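Two records follow; treat each independently.
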Amino acid sequence: MKIESLYAQIDKEIDSLETPEKSIIFLNNTSKKRKNFFILPRRKALNYKSVGFFIGNEVICENVCKYIDGKAKYILVDTENKQNFNLFSIAKRIYRNHK
């Protein structure tokens, strides 16, 4: 899967958020080997809208984290440490200077 095609999918999801100050992006992975990337269901709660992305490898993780930077009020990371890469460490390094 080419990174550019991921960006188009990400943009489509982020466009659904509508209100930047009430937006959340979830980044997830799992201990089971699955696809390298897929879109998780959109959610809405307490006047916030969220989109989510499953990330299954380090290269995609680096690219997605950099690409979504600044595109939502909050970026939340849900990670499984049994993966062959550490989603949380990568996100923490990229977003180090953020609130």
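The next record belongs to a different protein.
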Amino acid sequence: MSSPSSELIPTILFVAMDRAFLDAFRKDFPGVLALSVAHAAAARERIAVTKPFVVVAASVIPKEDLADLVEVSAGVGADVIRMAGESTSPIAYFRIKKALIERLERRRAAERAQGTENQ
């Protein structure tokens, strides 16, 4: 079952990202619920509960853990972005916004398709 926030508020889960980046992101995007965890094991547990739209994984996460995050994220329809943990560049924000918009568009398309099936 989805949590109420995952149904109503776009959610992003940040994994092993720098605190300054998280603070800046939360300030710049107040309409997005930005959750954070310190490592991949905690992210695996949170993904199933929070059902984020996007998972942003720091580049310090080992490839094996990243592959696991991609698999778990796919199970809830979330996209995974890998980036430098301290990146506050406009490109980093653009990548996150792009992934979030794409996820929202897929969700709307699925809702429209579901509405068509129910008619």
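Discussion point: The chain has one domain: 4-117. How would you locate this feature using only the token line?
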